[in-house]
């Protein structure tokens, strides 16, 4: 058995049968979510569903750059609940969520309670993003799975392939001539 077969958790030949999650958007700039247009969604590859997850209840976001490190890396996939909660109910407190604030901005944040009813603190998950304190939110959706890029498999028109990590895309370091 090859390493590819083990990490994909899909026996050879079954990847064509495995369902995929739609890629709904990309995360950039330390946690801001950019939704894909309908055309981009049709062109985007599907993310192969990990075994045991409810395909009908989750959607995928891709981390598009390195601005979310060290928490999320480029190519990582976040699977979140398709259904949203109005506002920020108490069951969201302490969890990482996709959040739409009162001004319409969508981001990835941890939800913390405040003293003011109907308002929450949106805690940035990365060092280069700012916390947003005492904010009203339109809706929240809990992130259920952070899937590292090295484990993600996507389905394209030409087959199934791995998402490469940054390390695989970097130029090799120059060799030392001292011997």
Automatic annotation (TrEMBL):
Protein name: Peptidase S24-like
Source organism per UniProt: Salipiger pallidus
Domain of life according to the entry: Bacteria
